[in-house]
Amino acid sequence: MLGAGYRGWDDEFKDGWFDVESAVNAVTVQIADEDEARRVVACLDALQVFDREESQLRLEPPLGDCVARGT
Question: What tens digit of pLDDT does each residue of 13-60 get?
């Protein structure tokens, strides 16, 4: 579930910044369950997979590289 969420963001946002609601929406598209999508976002946020700038998030570049390579 976490991997699907992360891949969904990678597909949707690439190197750009996004807010929490956009993150939830991207995961909801992948898994079709908004409550579960919110849990995925919260879990990945707790694992610090995001860079933060005020209310904006983006995926940590090294993790994005790993996802892109399938590792």
Answer: 876 899 999 999 989 988 899 999 999 999 989 999 888 999 999 888
Q: pTM for the full model?
A: 0.78
The CATH number given to whatever domain includes residue 17 is 1.10.10
Q: Which residues pair with 50 in a beta bridge?
A: 59
Between CA 63 and CA 29 the distance in angstroms is 21
Residue 66 CB neighbour total at 10 angstroms: 12
Count of structural domains, the chain: 1
The range of the structural domain enclosing residue 9 comes to 2-69
